[in-house]
């Protein structure tokens, strides 16, 4: 009996050249000068090929917020205390968080997945309990997680996508919540991109200049501590295990699983983009399935987007996480689809075509 490889070893499907061509042809006959709807045109064409339908739609949007704590908080790398992660889980399901408001506004489904908080929380309605451990280990002094924990996080991402697919999701947004996760994400990006901590560490939730210097020093120590392991062959996975967070790994798993389920992904801010970077290093074909919603105010995000060759749709100086930047870009995707699907053609409207 041959065992199939784990889902993160399977390449995502490629986009149908026929549907891409059909989409381009449709855009060319709509009543507008060619190219005049700018990036909205390609957005609709790509969504059409991703969804394998000539008339794409993003009416059913699934937002999943993966939450977890980080041992590296012991180094004083965040402006906020660790208990905020658990407190925000309650806020998400009580409807008071920014992403709760945005999800309601969009008519999107919001799911919260608890991957493990420092002070374990009781089970409650509206929270998927998928605790791996009460947070990661301190990545400055030890591997953030074991291989088994990494695999559990990847599978938690896949399971969330399976629930989204069963609910008929037409677009997947992966959000995150984890005090300390800009340090873990910066560490992962430094290792994957071979960049110095100075170019990827930023204020996160609001560190001052002294705080950022401390964060940079912690990142230097972490990269030194893990330098032999992260140079190994299976790099994206060892980097995620050594330096990442449960929610970062779950996002990477979710993005890969979404592509395999042919669900387009709208990527949020710095942390989500680092997860996308690790996942595309594992499976380069994932890039065809990702739309980048915004450029966060977290300074390292620009570097990560450049490495992904991504030009995000919005620059609003947001730096919240939770999937909030991605949710903010959903109306653009909806408008791109409405224009593609509903505009009259030159022929139908009896309008003369240009050259
Ligand atoms: O998405 C972003 O670009 C982003 C930028 C800065 C901070 N965050 C959020 O802030 C938290 C991490 O910040 P910190 O300072 O605790 O590392 C975490 O819950 C993220 O969702 C998110
Ligand atoms: C209040 C608060 C809300 C958040 N949402 C995502 N990260 C966050 C960090 C803090 C501190």
TrEMBL record:
Pathway: Nucleoside biosynthesis; alpha-ribazole biosynthesis; alpha-ribazole from 5,6-dimethylbenzimidazole: step 1/2. PANTHER family: NICOTINATE-NUCLEOTIDE--DIMETHYLBENZIMIDAZOLE PHOSPHORIBOSYLTRANSFERASE. Catalyzes the synthesis of alpha-ribazole-5'-phosphate from nicotinate mononucleotide (NAMN) and 5,6-dimethylbenzimidazole (DMB). NCBIfam families: cobT_DBIPRT, PRK00105.1. It catalyses: 5,6-dimethylbenzimidazole + nicotinate beta-D-ribonucleotide = alpha-ribazole 5'-phosphate + nicotinate + H(+). Transmembrane segments: none annotated. The keyword Signal does not apply. Gene3D superfamilies: 1.10.1610.10, 3.40.50.10210. Its EC number is 2.4.2.21. Keywords: Cobalamin biosynthesis, Glycosyltransferase, Transferase. It comes from the Bacteria. Pfam families: DBI_PRT (PF02277). One of its GO terms (molecular function) is nicotinate-nucleotide-dimethylbenzimidazole phosphoribosyltransferase activity. The active site is at 322 (proton acceptor). This is Nicotinate-nucleotide--dimethylbenzimidazole phosphoribosyltransferase. It is an enzyme of class 2 (transferase). Belongs to the CobT family. GO terms for biological process: cobalamin biosynthetic process.
């Amino acid at each position: 009996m041959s065992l199939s490889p784990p889902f993160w070893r399977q390449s995502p499907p490629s986009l149908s050249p026929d549907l891409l061509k059909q989409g381009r042809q449709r855009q060319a006959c709509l009543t507008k000068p060619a190219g005049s709807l700018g990036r909205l045109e390609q957005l609709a064409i790509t969504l059409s090929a991703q969804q394998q339908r000539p008339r794409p739609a993003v009416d059913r949007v699934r937002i999943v917020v993966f939450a977890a704590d980080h041992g590296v908080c012991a180094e004083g790398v965040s402006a906020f205390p660790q208990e905020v992660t658990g407190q925000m889980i309650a806020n998400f399901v009580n409807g008071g968080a920014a992403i709760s408001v945005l999800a309601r506004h969009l008519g999107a489904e919001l799911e919260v997945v608890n991957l493990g908080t420092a002070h374990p929380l009781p089970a409650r309605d509206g929270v998927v309990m998928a605790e791996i451990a009460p947070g990661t280990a301190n990545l400055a002094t030890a591997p953030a997680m074991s291989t088994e924990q990494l695999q559990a996080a990847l599978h938690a991402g896949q399971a969330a996508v399976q629930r989204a697919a069963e609910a008929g999701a037409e677009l997947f947004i992966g959000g995150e919540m984890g005090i300390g996760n800009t340090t873990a994400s910066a560490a992962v990006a430094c290792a994957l991109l071979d960049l110095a901590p100075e170019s990827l560490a930023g204020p996160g939730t609001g560190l001052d200049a002294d705080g950022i210097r401390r964060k940079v020093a912690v990142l230097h120590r972490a990269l030194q501590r893990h330098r032999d392991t992260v140079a190994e062959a299976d790099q994206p996975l060892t980097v995620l295990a050594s330096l990442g967070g449960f929610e970062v790994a779950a996002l990477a798993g979710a993005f890969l699983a979404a592509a395999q389920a042919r669900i387009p992904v709208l990527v949020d801010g710095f942390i989500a983009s680092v997860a996308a970077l690790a996942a595309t290093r594992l499976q380069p074909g994932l890039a065809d399935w990702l739309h980048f919603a915004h450029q966060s105010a977290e300074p390292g995000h620009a570097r990560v987007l450049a490495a992904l060759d991504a030009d995000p749709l919005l620059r609003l100086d947001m730096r919240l996480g939770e999937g909030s930047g991605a949710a903010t870009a959903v109306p653009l995707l909806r408008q791109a689809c409405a224009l593609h699907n509903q505009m009259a053609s030159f022929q139908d409207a009896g309008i003369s075509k240009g050259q």
